[in-house]
Amino acid sequence: MKLLGAIVLVLGLVIGILPQFTDCQSQGRMITLENGKTLSMKCHWTARSEIAMAAPLVAMGLVTTVVRRKDTRMILGFLGLILGAFVISLPTWLVGVCASPDMVCNAVMKPALILSGIVVSAASLGVMGIAWTAKE
């Protein structure tokens, strides 16, 4: 159980930190309007949104490593499953990333977030499975 909690904890940190350095705005790219005003691209808002997913994942990973109650582990596993699904859906269809496939957000951020979300969901299913079979 401690290993799965540590995996979720580390991936929560990856989900919160990695997008902040792999969005287009961190690379100096922004949308410039005709009037000279600049706007952030979609990948920037995806990176910001992932912070909201990372914070509860880090807390969940930390609590999962120390908690011993079966029902608490089940709830934490279910929470991790939902958060993992949101981590995947933010760069794919909720907010998205830039349309150009050669941008750093498409090459690094999106695949890393999808993979991290899948691993978080799998680890959360593992937490739920271990809690399901455990005795009180």
Briefly say what this structure is:
With 136 residues, this protein is mainly alpha-helical. The protein has one domain.
Please tell me about this protein's structure.
It contains 4 helices and 2 strands, in the order H-E-E-H-H-H. The chain has one domain (2-133). Strands 1-2 form a two-stranded antiparallel sheet. The protein has helices at residues 2-22, 42-66, 70-94, 104-133; strands at 31-32, 38-39. The model has no long low-confidence stretch (mean pLDDT 92). It starts with a helix and ends with a helix. The radius of gyration is 17 Å and the shape is elongated. Strand 1 and strand 2 form a beta hairpin. Helix 1 (2-22) packs antiparallel against helix 4 (104-133) and helix 2 packs antiparallel against helix 3. The protein has 136 residues and is mainly alpha-helical. Helices cover 74% and strands 3% of the residues.
Number of strands: 2
Proportion of residues in extended strands: under 5%
In one word, what is the shape?
Answer: elongated
Overall structural domain count: 1
Q: Tell me the helix content.
A: over 70%
Structural class: mainly alpha
List the helices and strands and how they pair.
Elements: H1 2-22, E1 31-32, E2 38-39, H2 42-66, H3 70-94, H4 104-133
Antiparallel strand pairs: 1-2
Characteristics:
136 residues, mainly alpha, two-stranded antiparallel sheet, 4 helices, 2 strands, elongated
